[in-house]
Amino acid sequence: MAKRFEQTTGPSQRQQRVAELVRHALAEVLSRGDFQDDVLTKNVITIPEVRMSPDLKLATAYVMPLGGKDEDAVIRALEKNRKVLRQEVARRVNLKFAPDLRFRRDESFDEAARIDSLLRSERVARDTAKPATDISDDDSEQES
User: Fold this and answer.
1) What is the pLDDT of residue 139?
2) What is the CATH number of the domain that holds 22?
3) Whole-model pTM above 0.85?
4) The dihedral sign for the CA sequence 93, 107, 102, 81
């Protein structure tokens, strides 16, 4: 009887490794600024994550311009220059197929800021504060 493997919920180790290679290649290409596009040359773009499809033919890059301004313009400029970016990634990453690139807005910074503001709110601080015990009452009971 054949062994059955349970489907893993996360990406494989190879997907993660290739995604990291693609992320580094994209970051290098974007940091060099060899584009005719004014939006890409005037903005510093961070790429915190790239996710690869299981067949390694599709890479979804989550991008955020530094400072969080002109997000839509940056995404449009990246989509417009997708062919050039794909060629540059193919040149830097040795794969059988150059992955198609998709660009999405990275929302992890917004989510982290939202969680941070929740943790700093007065309501949560009140719940997590240590209860104050009055030491003087305990000492007076023991002396009696």
Assistant:
1) 54
2) 3.30.300.20
3) no
4) negative
